[in-house]
Every structure is written in C-alpha cells, then in structure tokens.
C-alpha cells in the first residue's frame, strides 16, 4: 500500500507541476480559455479524449459491465460517436466563429436574452459534470486508501480546482496529455487483461457468466436509445466539448484528431465493460455495485501496479472534472457576469477568469459532498442540457424561421419538463429526455410559426 500511495502522490505532484507551467503560458484571456487556439493533432486528440472519459465512463461503465455485461459499453459508445459527429459536421463552422461559449451562437442568431437564458442551463450542466467526476475521485480514494469520503473529495477535488484555477486551458491541456497516456496504459493495457486473467481467462467468463452478458443489446434498446439522446446529442452542445474544439489549430486537426478521439472512446468503453464482467466473476456479491471498479483494482493488482492503475483512474476523473469546472467558469465569466455587472461586451482579464474558476470550484466541491451516484449526477446534467438546449440550438443553426421568443420558451419549458419528470419518475427513467424534447420541439415550432417572421439573421457559418 505504501508503494501505491507513493505512485499516486508522484502523479499528483506531476499534475500540480504541469498546472504551474500552464499558468506561465496563460498570459491572455484566449490562452486561459482556449489555449491560444493553437493545439496540434497530438495534444488535441489527447485532451478531447481525456475530457470525455471521466467518472461515468470509467467507474460508471465498469459498473454497467458488472450488472449488464458487454452491453454496458453503450454509454461510452454514445459519447465517442458524439465526438466523431461533432468533429465531422460542426468543427469547421465552430472554428470560423472565433467564440468562447455555446451560448454565443444563440446571441448571434437571436439576441442577448437568449444567450443569458441558455447560459443558466449551461452553467448547471457544467457544474454537474465537474461534480460527477469529483464524486468518482472521492469514491476511488475512499475505497483504496480507507479515507473518509469527505476527505477524499476535498483532497482529490481540491487538486483539480487548484491546477484548473492557476493555468486554465493550458494547464488542462498539459495535464490531459499525461492523463490520457496514463489511463490508456493503466486501464486498457493493465487492469483489463489482468482482471480477466485473474478471473480465469475468457473461457472462464463465458462459463461463469449468463449468456446475456455477451449480448451487445442486453442492456435494452430503450436504454441504448436514451444514451444516444442524452450523451450523443449532449456532446454536440456541451460547453466543455465546444471549448476543446475551439483549441484546435486548424479545421483538419479538429476533424481528423477529433474523430480518432471518438474511436478511442468506444474502445475504452469496451475495455471498461470487460473489466466489469471480470469483476462479476471475481466478486459476484458486492454490496454496492458502484464500488466494482475500486474493488477489482484492490483485489486483482499487486502493489505498485495498483498505484499506477489508481493514478490512471484519477487521471480520467480529474480531466473531466477540470473540463466541467473551466466550462462553468467560462460560461459564468463570459455570459452571465457581464449581464449582472452591467458591463458592456464580454472582455475580462485572466485574473477575473481565475476568480470565477476558484469560486465555482468551491461550488463543485460542495455539490460533490452531497451527491453520491455518479451516473445519476451525469444523467441529471445531460437531461437538463439536451432537454433545454438541443432544439433551440439546432433551430438557431438550421431554421431561418425560428424566433427569439420560441427559443427562450423552448429552453424554459424543455428544462422544466426534464426536471419535473426526473423528480416524478427518477433519474434513471427515460421519460425526462423524451418528454422534454417533445415539449421543447412543439413549443419551438409553434411559437416560431405564430410569431412575426424574424429579420434576416447573422450567418453562423
């Protein structure tokens, strides 16, 4: 255990050092928020993959593999295909816009009110993304090191808040590259094959697990469809993802390297689902399936190697937590603070952006302390985001007849409907996303058609 702790502490020290180096590179607002829009293919691929693969993609997918088998990979598959989709179809027009936030698209198409209304939804989404991975960090550290949950949250999450605050996107990019390499080696090349071997090999999995565990649709078509509605389209409109797209040096880099990152996410999901299946053989009666990942690491790996895999898990979790935090602070600083402060425009200093990152980092830590389920927290975030913003954003980009009143109404009704059905039917239900999209679409189309035809909009391409 002492060797494992040393490896993890070494990893943490490296993250803080890279965060400090990133601070030295973040001299302007553009450096801090989008890494100067200057990332090459290697950095772009690594930071995009590391951003997507967080708490739900690691701990959550291992849990799904433990409960459902190979079909648990669909969560990561939906995320990965979303990355491929945005890389192929949206990266080019997004890079031409030279903006910082998703909501600026709505302002260009409609007016500042639409931007501010959508920013409130985006802020909640980004905070929950940050909190989701911070919860997962706490879970891993609690199980493996025997720390109280609140101590694990404050230690692990505090490190993320620190390096995100001081260096912004440059710190996130530099740490993401290391995190991408570590989680590739630790989770795909060490944990998965060693856990399967410990379980007796592939033949033992086939013999000891039900046949449904090898059925790619056993998780249920309703769940697969819901994953695509929530996560595939969520990737298309998430501030944390768009902010990574804005860092690409060129359209070709965003298109090619982004697509490779999406393929990597699908393969990563398969690896995590297989690890969960091995855990089911080795640990068939876990009291809490949320601990499947941490427990399989604890029982299957030797000292030292265990520390590397823990570092790999923390790498995946910290990258997504930091992405959510920076997305939240960017939305607050660029979209909401000018409205509240009465300041014209959206200019702000690096110092001001650091203050927002620190303050919202404290909010993320507080949220993580009171929420316990990573998949539930992630589902809440994406239900609100997709239910409230998918229809208005698609309308802003593709439908000239759309109006400002329709966009704002659709956002309000869609997000409220998602919240209502999450309370009524639970976070794991499919109804929140179905009804929120239906209500959002009907209200958006109806009000647009009933309103006066809008003046010609500014081009979004």
Structural notes for this entry:
It is a single chain. This protein is an all-alpha fold and 461 residues long. It has a single domain, classed as Sodium/glucose cotransporter, CATH 1.20.1730.10. It has helices at 2-25, 29-34, 41-52, 55-68, 74-89, 91-97, 103-109, 112-145, 149-198, 202-208, 221-237, 239-245, 251-282, 292-300, 305-341, 350-370, 374-398, 404-425, 431-450. Helix 1 (2-25) packs parallel to helix 15 (305-341), helix 5 packs parallel to helix 11 (221-237) and helix 8 crosses helix 16 (350-370). The mean pLDDT is 87. Its main location: membrane. Keywords: Membrane, Symport, Transmembrane, Transmembrane helix, Transport. GO terms for molecular function: symporter activity. The chain crosses the membrane at residues 6-23, 43-66, 72-95, 116-137, 143-165, 177-196, 216-236, 256-279, 308-334, 355-375, 381-399, 406-427, 433-451. It is a multi-pass membrane protein.
CATH homologous superfamily caption: Sodium/glucose cotransporter
Structural class: mainly alpha
How many DSSP-defined strands? 0
- Shape label: globular
Largest sheet: none
- Average the pLDDT over all residues and give the rounded result: 87
The run of helices and strands is HHHHHHHHHHHHHHHHHHH
Radius of gyration: 21 Å
Membrane topology: Multi-pass membrane protein
Subcellular location: Membrane
Pfam family, one: SSF
Family: Belongs to the sodium:solute symporter (SSF) (TC 2.A.21) family.
